[in-house]
Every structure is written in C-alpha cells, then in structure tokens.
Specification:
The chain is α/β, with parallel strands linked by helices and 447 residues long. The protein contains 11 helices and 15 strands. It has an 8-stranded parallel beta sheet with strand order 5-4-3-2-1-8-7-6. The longest helix is centred in the middle third of the chain and has 22 residues, at 222-243.
Length: 447
C-alpha cells in the first residue's frame, strides 16, 4: 500500500523526537560525550591500591623469568599490591620477587616474623631501598597480648625506615571472641573497641586494617553479618579519625568451609561498601592458594582462589579481574577526599536499627535527602570545601537493580564516576542514578 507524504513526515518527526529524548535522558544541560572523555583523559586521579594475599609459591618463581611471568599475571588481573607470604624465608627468592613486582608495577608489603627479630631486621635492611617495597606487616590478626612485642618490633623497624614506609598489623574482626581478642568489655566500651584502641595506643601502626569476611555459607544470615560488618567499620573509622590514620581492608573472593565464594555482584558490593567507608586499599583473600590439601578437595581446608595450588588460573581470577577493571575505571577520584560520615537508607530497617544513631547522618552539606528503590548506603566526603558522595546499591541479588534519587538544596554542577568512567556532568537539584546489583558510584559536587 502506498504511504502518504504525511506518513513519512510523521515518521521522520517521531525519529527526531526519539533522538531528542535519548539525548535529554542523558541530561539536556549535561556535558557532551566528547567533553566527558576529555575531562576523564586529563584527570590525574589517584591509583587505588588493590592487593592480594598470598604471593606465588616458591616453586613457581625459581627464576627471574618465572617470577616476572607470574607477577605479570597478577598485574593483568588489576592487582597492584601484594602482601608477601613465605618469600622472606629465602633472600634470593625475595630479591627475584621484588624485581618482578617492580617490573609489573606491583607494590609489596613485606611480612615480618615477630618470633625472629634478627631475621626480620635483616629483611628490612635488605628491602628498605627497593622501589617495589612500600612497607611491612608485623603480624596478621594478633591478640592484644602480643601488642607489647609488636611495639618493640615496630620501634626497631622504624629506626631503620623512619616515616618512609608503612608499618602495619592486620587486626582481628569484631566477630572474634573475647578470648581471641585478649580483652574484655569495660567502661561502656565493647571488647572490640578496646582491642582497636589498644592496638593504636600500644603498637601505634601507620594505619588501621582488618579482614571481615561477610559471605557465609547460608545467605539467610547475610543481614546479621552485614550489621556486624557495619559496626566493625564504624569502630575502625572512629579510631582512624581519632588517630589520624588511613583505613585498609580485605575482600573475600574465596569460599571455604562455612563460607561461600561470592558471585560478581557480591564481590562488587563488598568492594564499594569498603570504599564508601573511606578505605584506601583493598586486598583479596585468596590470591594464590598455598594449601596442598586444597587440590584434594576433601573439605578439610579447601579454599577457592584466583590461582590454584598447582599454579592454574581459575574462574575466580577472571571474576576478580572484571571487578578490578570496574574499580580502576573510577581513577581513585575519591581517595583524596576526607571521610565524614555515612547515610543509610533501608526500605525495611533492620541493619540500620543495629547501628547507634550517633554514627549515622540523615543529610550532608548539599544533600538534603535521598529516595531509593532498594537499600542504599552513602559515604559522605569532603575535599577543600567540596562534597563527594559515594553511593552504593546494597542489594546484590540477581534482580537487585536500584534507582536512587539524591535531592540537593539547590541546583549544583556534579560529576558521576562509575565502572564506566566519568559518565555524566550535569547541573540540577536532583541526582538520578540507576545502579546494577552491588554497584557503587562517586558523585562529585563541583559548584
């Protein structure tokens, strides 16, 4: 059938209207795609440290070439920092590891031995001038009874390296028992608050760090575990603010007895929620599997990992690689902001009800209120009088897409940084977001 001229004009008009709608859906007053790319390309952000625990096993780094290949493998997954494991047992191996790490752009935090002061100090003297080494970890998950000994070691290390290197310990999480922590509650403070306080007063590390693993075997317990995680982070954040140190943390990419291996959305969520609390470095547990029993699959201790005990890349590696690509796309724009607080939005308050009210904000600077389809957390930041908002979709279920609206006190120019880089620059009194399961974005208010 012949079409009239009116039909063709109408069709052309509809096409133009659709094109206009698409453009305006990205923001009629927003910067063009080319402008955004120029800003993104020219932006000199900070590099987020994304680390791993454990380093490649000794038998796979016997030569410089083998070490370089294995550390490039880590770098290709988006890893740029590693905690050494048993590398310090062999000085020649440690030298190969340091050189390979430097070649792949990976920084090292060298593990020392509290029970062998002389060896530890020899290692510090051997490594202190290597460009790959940024610091030393004195102990993983020490009870409070070890704090005096750790202070003695810290002093000896500091005498050698001064303020040029990180000197840290990795603390137990708050689900450790009083017996494990080595303290009891008193003076209105929890055991964990006292444990953290003593670590800072006695050991005086360069930063605060813990490894809280939130993905238990059964998902029904997730809300309770998440509530415990938030309380853990508030205690660490309060101590970090008091002692003016940075926060570091760990991500669970592994599954083992009683714990499930997180899927991509769960891993994405755990990364972004840490960053929304102001964490400056994330490290995966587990990178290279050091347990011979793991290849038996007998369930005794059978953790999953990025790379297996026998050196094979696993599906877990590619999952971590994908999440790291998303994280690095944000160019660490939030890292030089100071963390000021947390806003929690829950459709049916449960986790929020377990957090003391004094720990939570209801609004922040230009942000008057927020509305969302699903549970949402907002980390509130400042830099030189400018506001930053780290918005996290706390729903990591398969159908957990979240729409969020941030209501501002007036029209402001803002930028949105996401897994796709810089995706918007607009001026409005409302910031509208659509977040996939577990996703986080950083909103810069720039005027």
């Amino acid at each position: 059938m012949m079409k009239s001229k009116a039909y063709y004009f109408t069709k052309k008009g509809l096409v133009l209207l659709i094109m206009l709608a698409v453009i305006c859906s990205a923001g009629c007053s927003s910067s063009s795609r080319g402008d955004l790319k120029k800003i993104y390309d020219e932006y000199e952000g900070n590099t987020l440290l994304i680390g791993g625990w454990v380093t490649p096993r000794g038998e796979f780094v016997k030569t410089a070439e083998e070490a370089e290949a294995r550390y490039k493998e880590l770098a290709d997954a988006g890893i740029n920092m590693m905690y050494t494991f048993d590398d310090t047992d062999d000085p020649d191996r440690l030298k190969r590891v340091m050189d390979a790490a430097e070649k792949s752009g990976i920084k090292l935090v060298v593990h020392l031995d509290l029970n062998n002061f002389n060896h530890s100090l020899d290692i510090v003297n051997m490594t202190k001038d290597h460009p790959a080494v940024i610091g030393y970890i004195l102990k993983d998950e020490p009870p409070a009874s070890l704090f005096p000994g750790l202070l003695a070691l810290r002093k000896k290390v500091y005498d050698i390296v001064g303020d040029d290197k990180i000197i840290m310990i990795n603390l137990l999480p708050n689900y450790a028992s009083d017996a494990q922590l080595g303290v009891v509650p008193k003076d209105g403070k929890t055991s964990y608050q006292i444990y953290v306080e003593q670590s800072m007063k006695i050991v005086n590390p360069t930063l605060l760090c813990t490894d809280y693993y939130m993905f238990r075997a059964g998902k029904d317990g997730d809300p309770g575990v998440l509530a415990g995680y938030y309380r853990n982070m508030f205690d660490l954040r309060d101590a970090a603010n008091e002692y003016e140190v940075d926060l570091w943390g760990f991500l669970q990419n592994s599954g083992w007895a009683g714990m499930r291996e997180p899927n991509k959305a769960e891993l994405r969520f755990s990364a972004h929620v840490n960053l929304a609390f102001g964490v400056k470095c994330l490290a995966y547990f587990l990178c290279w599997n050091p347990h011979a029993d793991s290849i038996k699959g007998d369930g005794r201790y059978d953790p999953t990992s990025m790379i297996s005990y026998d050196g094979k890349i696993t599906d877990n590696y590619y999952k971590v690689q994908a999440i790291n690509k998303e994280l690095h796309a944000m160019k660490g724009v939030y890292l030089d902001y100071k963390h000021k607080g947390i806003i929690m939005y829950e459709k049916t308050p449960f986790v929020k009800s377990t957090i003391p009210e004094e720990n939570l904000l209801e609004s922040f600077n230009e942000l008057v209120s927020l509305d969302a389809a699903r549970n949402t957390l907002v980390g509130c930041f400042e830099k030189e009088g400018k506001t930053g908002l780290y918005v996290v979709n706390c729903d990591y279920s398969d159908n957990g897409v979240n729409t969020v609206k941030l209501k501002l006190n007036d029209k402001h120019t803002y930028r949105i940084w996401s897994k796709d880089g810089l995706i918007a620059q607009k001026k409005s009194d409302t910031v509208s977001l659509k977040l996939i399961p577990g996703e986080g974005v950083f909103v810069q208010i720039i005027d």
